[in-house]
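Record format v2
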Amino acid sequence: MNNRHIYILAALLTVLGIGLFTYKAKVLGFPVRPQQQTQTWTIEAALRFDPGPAAVKATLRIPSLTPGYSLLDENFISRGFGVTTYIAPAGREAQWSVRQAAGPQTMYYRAVVYRDETRLAEDTTPPFPTPPELDEASQLALEALIAEVRRQSADVASFTVQLLRRINQGDQDPYVRVFLKRGDTQADRAQLATMLLAGAQIPARVAHGVFLRSAPGAVQPESILEVHDGVQWLYFNPTTLQQGLPPDFLIWWRGDDPIAEVTGGSNLDVTLAVQENLLPAMVVAERRAEQSGSHAVDFSLFALPIATQAVYSVLLMIPIGALVIVLLRNFVGVKTFGTFMPVLIALAFRETRLVWGILLFAIIVALGLLIRFYLEKLRLLLVPRLTCVLTVVVLLMVAISIVSQKLGLQPGLSLALFPMVIISMTIERMSIVWEERGASEAIQEGIGSLIVAAIAYLVMGIAWLEHLMFVFPELLLLVIVGALLAGRYTGYRLLELRRFKGVLPEHLAQ
Amino acid sequence: MFWRARRLKQEGVLGLNMRNGEYILRFNPRSRYPLVDDKLRTKQLALQANIAVPPLYGVIRTQHDIRLLPDIVREHPQFVLKPAHGSAGDGIVVIAGRSGSRYRTIGGTLLDEESLAHHLSNAINGQFSLGGVQDVVIVEYMVQFSPVFESLSYQGVPDIRVIVFRGIPIMAMVRLPTRASGGKANLHQGAVGAGIDLATGVTLTGVLGTEVITHHPDTGNPIAGVKVPDWDTMLDIAARCYELTGLGYIGVDIVLDRDRGPLVLELNARPGLAIQIANRQGLLRRLQICEQRADFNAPPAERVAFAKQAFKHPVAAA
Ligand SMILES: Nc1ncnc2c1ncn2[C@@H]1O[C@H](COP(=O)(O)OP(=O)(O)O)[C@@H](O)[C@H]1O
Ligand SMILES: [Mg+2]
């Protein structure tokens, strides 16, 4: 009856938990593994020029539409210049200006980019280009060339390839020769192609960029031809005719203009450099979320002060420990002192490490029991007696810390997390079991609790799990799902299979 | 492993998870728990319903009341101290007599006034109650052990546990104190449980811990074949405890007094499962038989008749 209710609730929580998790992991790039790093590149442009006597203005074209990459961070470095950035038709530009400057000037633009598959050439379909204005001879050559190329091609892509092939033949091509007047660099060829493509009513533009290599150092900008086929942008290497955007190519600026210009100065020299770095994935994810306007980070634990974060990274593991207890109790059937006592002991083990923790726990409980039995003789009332035991437990902890420090056993051993109150209650409870049901039962239950605590400790100590819980606290919803389902598990517990074997007719009494 | 689980299922064995999830949670309303968790209230309820219980000598409610103990038990050399919220036999002291100024427990230990007072003060402060809450201590009549079980008990009083499902007795056992259990009939403490044929009231095999046994570990006598006297009265009492509490799944603890006949000691809202080993029969099978065939609204006498007919040992699969 209400089993269905529970399954629906469990399904909802699962979808919610997994959904949030996937969104943060896949879209925002929150790291799924600890110490995960994201590859980033620092790109740098250095502008050097000699200023003239009057006001100086330097313009640098900076990345805006960068298919396959996203900008993480950028900054502008200069001395005494004011800097503004604005959107120009061809992309973004940064402008440094100053009334007066003396001596050679250097200014830097630095940006950090990271790979982002979701980033496409997302600008809208461009209008048809206006045909170039040419003299009559050139106009005729253009028309003939287009007609010829069109005959040899099927679509925009093959048209472009064919056209670029002709351009690369240079002087040998009778039509292309007409247009070859300037230099013969890659950029020139790409530029020529855009003009010819405009004559054929095909939108095209030149994109300039750098290859993001892993070896740091100066790089030369390279050009690539972008052609719009009515649906999307296609990319062509004007020299090799290779189609497609190389995966490590970062488009820096577009258009026929150079990367930088200076007015009121001279001897402009621009050098570009690239350097690869690895940043903690979380840093990248945070910035990315910030930029995409998502509040995932504002509402994540990273928004808290570091000290608080440390506390939560421990706290978030407690439900995991509790789930371990659920499994051990309801599916295996282990008995422990107090329901969640082993979880608290397991927390204490985090500071002491397992072997020391078990040893200390055993020592403290054993000494505590001795004292408890002694106090029993004094016939104290219950609460004062508990207070005595508690105080003795604290004293024991202090003594153990100091002695181990002096002996150099485990320097700086911290027992701060040892749950004293819980241990005192355990001692009390254990002494009752001891008296009423005998030492063996008490010791058995004590050892059972320790084993459960050790298992909980081991599970709670899985670094990967801890990282997951901290970065994706929504996964705790899955812990609830686990508990919900376990709460409706009505099958046998593992230890019951042995316990009830006597019921079976085939089991013979001795 | 899976095979064992399958076999247990075929035999209709009830596991803890199933007991809690399917029966206790479903048929025992939380609001009724206080009726059985507080032995004093159970006693009063039973008296109102004309069900016999060990007579109450007095109640020690506060630290101050402890001084009244000698007055309360002046006329009664034998008596029992019992924390009202205790469970599993914890904190119960059975005083079988006096030597001089000291009290002699049924196990033979001598306690002076002072150590008894200390024990009472611990009990009042909640040492034996669930969650350590304040408690009261009942001082009551010590049941006089009927000779029927003499051959099967080492000191102390055997008690009879009947599981009652919505008013229908479905399984029973007698718990026999051993040397290990210190004269108390709690299985946790080492008492022997012996199954009882519900139809006849005759004992079957026994269980010690989780082991099936045929002879009492202390007296060496065979466990099977002893007829429990007043069996029909006991079944009737057990069945009526349903109306008393409104709890659908309970264990009724009855003792057989030499002079007073069957007396209800306590009711249990979370009765243990070892009774299945003592009877070598599963509870689940009987629960399901009830759910299929029983008329839960019938008067107690008819429910007992149904139980005697349906649960004649051995009960075959439905
Ligand atoms: N009035 C009594 N006379 C003799 N023995 C008693 C009496 N009350 C309890 N006992 C012994 O103590 C055991 C536990 O008592 P019970 O009332 O069932 O409390 P619990 O909830 O702790 O099981 C009984 O099985 C019986 O052996
Ligand atoms: Mg009992």
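Chain B has two domains: 2-51+146-310, 56-141.
Residues B 253, 266 surround magnesium ion (ligand 2) (CB under 6 Å).
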